[in-house]
Structure formats: structure tokens, C-alpha cells
Amino acid sequence: MKRILIVDDEKDIRDNIKAILADQSYLSETAESSDQALYLIEQNQFDLIILDVWLNDSKLDGMQLLNEIKNKHSETPIIIISGHGNIEMAVQAIKDGAHEFIEKPFNSERLLLSVSRSIEMAEIKYENQKLKEKEIYNYKFIGISPQIQKIRQLIDKVAPSSSRVLIYGESGTGKDLVAREIHKQSKYSDGPFIVINAAILEPEGIESDLFGFENGKDEVTAGLFEKSHNGTLFIDEVGEMPLQTQAKILRVLTDQSFTRVGGDKSISIDSRIICSSTRDLNYLIEEGSFR
């Protein structure tokens, strides 16, 4: 059974949220201040935290508490709620590590959707991270042939730099292993290694997947570019991306910033881009299907 911590200075709101969650068999505990919340977090393992921005008579406000929790429990998903929120606050909350931002007043369906989605996404992220760590670090780049030695030399040459890399090769030749090896030896090695297979992304949703999206004032979702901040973004089969998306990626590569779908705020990132392709991109450029 999932355990949720509700942090709000208003007792009526704490009790209301607790009752909504109890109807769906969630176990909940409540806190009215940052000190109370931090004590409960140290004593318990929570699957989700619902945190109000404004905490009257509290040592830390909600945004400060968000940062404090993320510093020690980065894996715990947090939903920020506020009755005085705006898009700038929502964007900042997401950048600071919140999974979602909900404006008060909200109905029970909206809250429960955010709760289930945040818990599910945190579980998927945890499982994927474990798999990626296993894939990245539990392998050996083997081979002693002259061709492999040349590849090693190229990896050693480009890995320490921040330059973008394009890896050519037929399917099954290990392009992803080369990308991981570059990431492993780079200054971004402590950051995330995010993989996108452009060939299997749905065309109508690819820009939301890459850049994230904003839906009014109460929903902000980070995209893969944003999640790759301080790490590496590996775009597999980059030649399969739609032309319109290619143009936006070019702007990201040039400006190191982008806006979410439906948003107008510029988001800056520092990440390395590595791409791969089985197709001749020069030929695609000549035929007008690649920029």
C-alpha cells in the first residue's frame, strides 16, 4: 500500500486530501510545517509527497522545503499545490524537481490522476535508471582488431570534449555502446544518459516528448531535453525525425535553450548531444529530408 505525506498549513485541506486518498486505499500522514515534514520524512519511507507552496508559521516555505527534500531524497516524487500559483512558479517547481504543479482549488479526480501518475512515473524512472546503470557500467568494450582500436582512439579523443558526435553504423553494430562509452568518459558522466529512438516515436507527440509541454497553469511536464540536463542525450536513428522537429533541435543545439510545447518561457540546458544513424545523412540532405 502506497504511503503519502501531505504538507499544508491548513488543517481543512490536509484532512480533505487525506480523505480523498483514503477512499483509494492510500495511507497518508500529515504535517503542518517544514520541521514536522522533515521529521516524518526521516522516520518513514514515503512513495509521494503533496506539498503546499505557502506554509505559514513555518521555518521553510514550500519551495525551500522542496529543495531540502530533493537534496536528501531525490527519488521521492513531489506534487506542489498552491492557491496563488502562476506559470513562473510552476516552471520553477518543475526545474527544482517537482513532478507536477496543481492549482487550488482542485477536484478529487484531478488530484488522484496526478497522484497515480507521479507514483507510476517515479517507479518507472527508478527501474529505468537501474537498468541504464547496469547497461552503462556492467559491460566491457572488448576487441583487439585494428578497427576496434581505431574506434577506441576516436572515443578517447572526443569523450573529454563537449563536441556533438554522430555515430554511423549498421543495425546491431553497437552504436549505443559507443555512445555510452563516450558518456562514461566525459565530464557529463555523473549526469543522466537519456536515450531516444526517433524511429519509434509517434510523429504527433515527438515534440512534447522532446521539449515537454505546458497545459494552462496547472500542468507542466518536463521533456527529454530537460531531463538530460548535465548529462547526455543520445538520439538513435536521428534521420527518422520529422523536418519540423529537426529545425527546432537545430535551434536547441545553437542556443542551448528551448521552450516547452504550449509555453513561452526559455529553458536553458547544459547537455551533450550524441546521435546515431544507419542511413547516409548526406544523401538525406540532398533529397531534402534532413537538415
From TrEMBL:
Q: Name one GO molecular function term.
A: ATP binding
SMART domains found in the cross-reference section: AAA, REC
Sequence ranges assigned to domain Response regulatory in this UniProt record: 3-119
Phosphoprotein found in the keyword field = yes
Please name one Pfam family that this protein belongs to: Response_reg
Any one Gene Ontology BP term = phosphorelay signal transduction system
User: Which CDD domains does the entry mention?
Assistant: AAA
Alphabetized, the UniProt keywords read: ATP-binding, Nucleotide-binding, Phosphoprotein, Transcription, Transcription regulation
Which InterPro entries is this protein grouped with? Answer: AAA+_ATPase, CheY-like_superfamily, P-loop_NTPase, Sig_transdc_resp-reg_receiver, Sigma_54_int, Sigma_54_int_dom_ATP-bd_1, Sigma_54_int_dom_ATP-bd_2
Q: Which SUPFAM superfamilies match?
A: CheY-like, P-loop containing nucleoside triphosphate hydrolases
**Protein known as:** Response regulatory domain-containing protein
Q: What is the protein's species of origin?
A: marine metagenome
Starting at the broadest rank, the lineage of the source organism is: unclassified sequences, metagenomes, ecological metagenomes
